[in-house]
Amino acid sequence: MLYFIAEWMEFEGVFNLVRYQTARAGATLLTALIIGLFIGPRFISMLRIRQGKGQPIREDGPQTHLSKRGTPTMGGLMILVSLVLGLLIWMDLRNPFVWACLAVTVGFGIIGFLDDYDKVSKNSHKGVSGRTRLLLEFIVAGVAAFIVVGQINTYLYVPFVSDQAIPLGPFYYVFAAVVIVGAGNAVNLTDGLDGLAIMPVIIASGTFAIIAYLVGRVDYSEYLGIPHVPGAGELAIFCAAIMGAGLAFLWFNAPPAAVFMGDTGSLALGGALGAIAVASHHEVVLAIVGGLFVFEALSVIIQVFWFKRTGKRIFRMAPIHHHFEQLGWSESTVVVRFWIVSIVLALIGLSTLKLR
């Protein structure tokens, strides 16, 4: 909105700052952060009143989690409101990449909301069936992939290798949808401890803000030997909105959490990261930067597969963060150490921009 106003004013005076994506990214982060901090207490009070018992806690989960009964969920709504408002104020509304990523974020948020609502209303941890949820996710991801692929080529670029890409052709649409859905569910599986998922999401968003800005610049992308995607620089503003909204949520989600983001937030944020990775042509780098999410998802897949084959468990409990809790790590220890892992993985992901 402000970009159009600044453009109408021909970027004169103070409006000249709006011309620059870096300035708008910083402004978006602050806007989303302020909105989130302002509406947070009201959202939490509303959720507490409407939900009563809060998010159902699994009886077969870690016993230390039983003390969290009564904590409201669906805090992802707070994230979505502050994120969307921050974006609409500062983004270039003509950019198709931002609209595609926003469609995934809101669409996955709605799917997560339906799942959370089903859990809370029935006081059960089951929620919407897995098949129904996946079908809806692939529909949303498919639409976003169609929009994004209309703006980019269908090559898969390999990190650490310059000028090498794998032509996927029409299969790229399927690949893009899988990346988006996979990222959404990986973050969803990670969201099991206070502050565990949101900080790695913020770290990954900050990393992709840098990546998106660089691939959107023809001079930087040519110098670094990375694919140039015209218009992708606007995604740095999207990433900044995630960071601002995420930091505001972390203020209330820090241990002991006053609210959980629920599937409403985790699916939306994970899907957003997947869509940003596809739009910036750094899908493989997402697996590095978001390696923690990948590890969490793999721990569940491995646990289920091995248990069905042998009747035995590899991990004491899955996802993997519960395994470390069962080993005697305190919740805060698991969370902070996983944050450190996320920072290291983000640095490795950024190194792929130069090591080619």
UniProtKB/TrEMBL annotation:
Binding-site positions, Mg(2+)? 188, 263
Which InterPro entries is this protein grouped with? Glycosyl_transferase_4, PNAcMuramoyl-5peptid_Trfase, PNAcMuramoyl-5peptid_Trfase_CS
Spell out the subcellular localization from the entry. Cell membrane; Membrane
Which EC class is this protein assigned?
transferase
For membrane topology, the record states: Multi-pass membrane protein
| A single BP term in Gene Ontology | cell wall organization
Q: Which pathway does it operate in?
A: Cell wall biogenesis; peptidoglycan biosynthesis
Give the signal peptide range.
Answer: none
Membrane-spanning regions, if any? 25-44, 73-91, 97-114, 134-158, 170-189, 196-215, 235-252, 259-278, 284-307, 334-353
EC number per UniProt: 2.7.8.13
Q: Which GO terms describe its molecular function?
A: metal ion binding; phospho-N-acetylmuramoyl-pentapeptide-transferase activity
Primary site of residence = membrane
What's in the keyword line of the UniProt record?
A: Cell cycle, Cell division, Cell membrane, Cell shape, Cell wall biogenesis/degradation, Magnesium, Membrane, Metal-binding, Peptidoglycan synthesis, Transferase, Transmembrane, Transmembrane helix
> One GO term of the cellular component aspect?
plasma membrane
Q: What does it do?
A: Catalyzes the initial step of the lipid cycle reactions in the biosynthesis of the cell wall peptidoglycan: transfers peptidoglycan precursor phospho-MurNAc-pentapeptide from UDP-MurNAc-pentapeptide onto the lipid carrier undecaprenyl phosphate, yielding undecaprenyl-pyrophosphoryl-MurNAc-pentapeptide, known as lipid I.
Q: Belongs to which family? A: Belongs to the glycosyltransferase 4 family. MraY subfamily.
Name of protein: Phospho-N-acetylmuramoyl-pentapeptide-transferase
Q: Which organism is it from?
A: Qipengyuania atrilutea
